[in-house]
TrEMBL record:
It holds the Pfam family Abhydrolase_1. GO terms for cellular component: membrane. This is Pimeloyl-ACP methyl ester carboxylesterase. It comes from Novosphingobium sediminicola. InterPro entries: AB_hydrolase_1, AB_hydrolase_fold, AB_hydrolase_sf, Epox_hydrolase-like. SUPFAM superfamilies: alpha/beta-Hydrolases (SSF53474). It comes from the Bacteria. Residues 35-283 form the AB hydrolase-1 domain. GO terms for molecular function: catalytic activity.
Length: 298
């Protein structure tokens, strides 16, 4: 069981930077003069989901845990621009704001999809990379979507945005109600983990209720995305060593089994039994040990 109590001596510092007029948030742990390790969360998550890793690694690294736009304590995009291009721009702006020539990155899910592409676009800026279930969906799903006539895709995109504009964030009467919802959706996590993740995922409303911090418009697929062949070219351009971490009980396809890992010059994969998409929570001690060993190789 992984616990993180309020008495922990290592605490993060809260900082902000500006990207494309949005005020975006990140947490900083450890020595400001140490090498930078970026811990990037995934979709519908927040920077505090990386607290367990950050606390353990802050003795060796200047740990940076950003909130993606529309997540955590970062601003929501006024026009719901959560495209890969926008997220990439944000990460590039963060990298520049940190003032480091090279970054080491450990990222999960959507955050790993963004930062893997960053590592291919700016290969000289990334020293080592840990990818936790965040490469991309297998090609078939995206190809299937792209078969749809372009005008139909645009019409669907407009409809989804119109529907999302009318939506209001779900309200919970208490933090305990939100905890019960997250508990239900994350059976592998301990109660302590769920409580920590829930607490930092919520904002309080004026009427005393609670809502999730993330923008409810996050899951609208853009009309245009990076072409599949260009994404593969980005993977092939990554020059740093890459460690893929994969759970045995996940909805994400295994890049070691479908061949996507072969597009990387220097990559290996570890699969964890009894682990879901959030394997860095499910199997924390083992995952931490593997990450630490991989980073030490550099």
């Amino acid at each position: 069981m992984v616990k993180l109590s309020s008495s922990d001596s290592i605490r993060p510092r809260s900082n902000y930077f500006t990207s494309q007029t949005l005020r975006l948030h990140y947490l900083e742990w450890g020595d400001p003069n140490a090498p930078v390790l970026v811990l990037q969360h995934g979709g519908f998550d927040h920077a505090r989901s990386m607290d367990w890793l950050a606390r353990e690694l802050a003795g060796e690294w200047r740990v940076i845990a950003p909130d993606l736009r529309g997540h955590g304590n970062s601003a929501w995009s006024p026009d719901a621009d959560y495209t890969m291009a926008a997220l990439l721009m944000d990460f590039a702006n963060l990298a520049d704001a940190l003032g480091q020539e090279k970054l080491t990155i450990c990222a999960h899910s959507l955050g790993a999809m963004v930062t893997t592409r960053y590592a291919g676009i700016f290969p000289d800026r990334v020293a080592r990379f840990v990818n936790i279930e965040g490469l991309a969906l297998s090609s078939g799903r995206n190809s299937q979507r792209m078969i749809q006539p372009f005008a139909a895709r645009v019409a669907n995109w407009i409809r989804l945005h119109q529907e999302a504009a009318k939506r209001h964030p779900k309200r919970y009467a208490s933090e305990e109600d939100a905890f019960a919802r997250m508990r239900e959706k994350n059976p592998y996590l301990s109660d302590d983990q769920v409580r920590h993740l829930t607490h930092h995922a919520l904002r309080s409303n004026d009427d005393g209720t609670y809502s999730w911090k993330f923008d409810p418009r996050l899951n609208i697929w853009p009309v245009l995305d990076f072409p599949e062949e260009e994404v593969i070219a980005m993977w092939q351009a990554v020059t740093c060593p890459v460690l893929f971490l994969h759970g045995s009980n996940t909805f994400m396809p295994n890049p070691g089994k479908d061949g996507r890992i072969e597009h990387f010059r220097n990559a290996r994969l570890i699969e964890y039994d009894n682990a879901s998409h959030w394997l860095h929570h499910d199997r924390f001690p083992t995952v931490l040990e593997d990450i630490r060993a991989f980073l030490a190789e550099g």
